[in-house]
Model the fold of this input.
Amino acid sequence: MITNKFITFRSVTFFCVIILFVLSCGKPVSSVSETDPWKKMELIVKTIPQTHFSDKTYNINDFGAVADGKTLNTAAFEKAIKACAENGGGKVIVPNGKYLTGAIHLESNVNLHLEDHAEILFSINPKDYPIVHTSWEGTEVMNYSPLIYAKNKTNVAVTGKGTLNGQADSTNWWVWSGGKSYGWQKGIPSQNDPTNREVLVDMAEKNVPVAERIFGEGRYLRPSFIEFFECNTVLIKDVTVINAPFWILHPLKSNNIIIDGVTVNSHGPNNDGCDPEYSQNIIIKNCTFNTGDDCIAIKAGRDADGRRVAIPSKNIIVQNCKMIDGHGGVVIGSEISAGVNNVFVENCLMDSPNLDRAIRIKTNSKRGGVIEDIFVRNIEVGTVKECVLRATMTYNVYGSQTGNFIPVVRNITLENIKVKNGGKYGVLADGYAESPVENITLRNVVIQKVDSIYSLKNVKNINFINTYINGKKVEQTKN
Done:
């Protein structure tokens, strides 16, 4: 009897398992947790470690800092940070007031904390920024130090409700861009002179060692604002960043970064709000971006240098952010040669007559790269100039950008998107005949006031599911 009961129990259990299996097969793939990308995002969030600091504090005033906005306090910052690091770490306090300084170099276990009414004014004298190993537009270089810089550090932060002011404008850093709208006139040196930017790009193509790519004085390549280079476990929280020389928040070859509650308000040339490059496990949340370039631009190296480094950017999460002015809300590229995957964007507001696109992917046949698995949901878009989604494999800047490295762009999903003023196109996408943009899905998307539903060239498998543009349901296209 015991044996029979056991057999009966096993039979019933087996039958139940079969029924559950059959029922699960009838569900959409997205409802199965193992294949739901948003479940993957949740797992990434849970696994990113948090910064932790000793409760010791080090006030920069105790190390000679003067809050008059005129005295150069570089040495005071350096002494406070060094003392903090040598004593096991803690918080370096920037009290209320205006503090002028050159480059600030952080150490492991140090939290640079600005009080609510503290403002760090960064010098506009290039001589206050020593030459360090950094990157410029996706190419590694020995160049001016970023304004705030950390290399090979762990457990490090910049926090507080104070202001970081790069003091850049059309009389100093910005004029180096060579843009007439930023103060440049004929005869003024700039990054575009033949011996500057072009030389760096050529060095990378020829695989010149980074240590020999020495730029700095006389080369006019502007420094990034906040750069964490080869760092792990980083927090940037609550600060306001204004008047940046160049790229603003730049995690480079770094892992486990949380950027939370940061406000970026800077309209200079190449003033991208946040550029994760060769970096993984990044959360950007509760931030506001009002920029002169892309609000968020995910990077992975330029051309030969990107292929040399070969570190893809992945597991990038953008949550609860507001994008105002910018070339794009969330952008991938164009420095993208090592590839990007697993990007998640949710619960964001994008709205400005000066915002060109909501989501943008840009690469070309010099960049190459595999860009895949981009997931966007729950986005409110007020106004964009050009389109809601732009994906191009023929992005050109600095002249012709064609080569032999055909990119791959695939698996882009937009769901639960509402757009009031969509600009010229709902979707604008172009690929190559041999490598089309592949697998675009719009689900539960409503776009109003758009000139055209889409413009597609070499696009394979685009799906419109419960999507309405200009009040009409979009029928499935032929792929």
Q: What stands out?
A: The chain is about 15% helix and 40% strand.
